[in-house]
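User: My collaborator sent over this chain with a note saying "see what the structure looks like." That's all I know about it. Can you take a look?
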Amino acid sequence: MDQIKNRYNVLRVRHNDMKKLMSLSGFECDSEDKKIIVDDEGVWDAYLGDMDSEEELEERTLLLVVAAVIENVKGRICKEPCRTSILTGHQHMQEILRGHPRRCYEKYRMEKFVFLRLTHILRERELLRDRRWVTIEEQLAIFLLTIGHKEDNRMLQERFQHSSETISRYFNEVLRAIMELSKELIKPPSFSETPAEILNNSKYFPWFKDCIGAIDGTHIKGIVPLAQQTPYFDRKVNISQNVMAVCSFDLKFTYIYVGWEGSANDSRILWEALSNKSLMFPHAPEGKYYVVDVGYPNMPGFLAPYRGVRYHLHDCRRGSNGRFTAKDLFNFGHSSLRNAIERSFGVLKSRFPILRDPASFPYNTQVQILIATCAIHNFIRTESKSDELFAYYANEENVIDIDTSPPDEPTFSGMYAHQQRRSEMNHVRDEIADAMYRFRYRN
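Assistant: Without extra context I'll predict from the sequence alone. Here is the result:
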């Protein structure tokens, strides 16, 4: 730094000398055209006529060139610092973490102790490192403000008093670290026991005692180059990626399959997950199943509702004055149970607005951001039992952004390879429906 300052001082002195000489000689420097100019032709003639030799002409002309170059780069050499707030990024972090707990939740979309726990894990496992000017807390804050408030690079430069390059670098480093951590955070639970949310709720037990989770797809808006956009248009004519997710009934994501074009059929995505072993889909054990909507076939391991029968919760309340059929009762119970995946999506999209209004990242980065948000979602669910977003969506009626358009028919031919086994699952569904009907109208 001292060498740069000394060099700058030398250049400044030379520049002033050259500028003074040029003004006395009649020459000027045009900073836009980057040329040495003279308004009076007599000055140029006198300049040439005053030379005693070619060597003197070369020397004086070189001085003029040097003066012009210095004039041209002066603005860059003497650039005025832009980020000059007295509150550095580190000081800002300390203010938030030592202040009212509400500030941390509003800023970083999680409670203070959850934020500190996450930084501790990232530091302990050496997924991130404290740098001389940027701590892990500050790095994580940059990332969370981007995905939790969709702050752009320029706003983060101002907030943390760092350059554009520094902001981008630490965003990508945190994304890489969370992607690594996601391998532990997004994983299936034990399938050996009935989930507590079913076991302790008479609305579901014993009817759905063999259910191990819920599956559904959701569309996450994205940004794709113009030449590649066509397959990414979904039914609402938005550019999006179609994401298949599996969740447990405590609203954790246990598996996600991302990156598919918005026009892709849900059953096509599921079939690819089932048939491609490298994707490591958590197959249901024999006799167990996931609840799925009518966009998926009713087949072993996947229990779908009856088609053409009232299904959603509002249909149940609207028709409560009359007597329900066995299929009605099954569909209402199934809908309430499968509602867990809708509520999981509701929490995720409410916490991370970047999933509703995408930022201009490369498509692969957009895919990784989605995985990272699901990982952080699970981390918060594990660490905090008082998170307000999870508390809000604990009520199954508090679901937003449900796609009410007619679901796709499960048309992918690979799903129909074993018709006999599909009839087995139809029998399971009928048995559950009949048992629910007999129990409700037992008197």
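A starting point for your reply to your collaborator: The longest strand covers residues 211-221.
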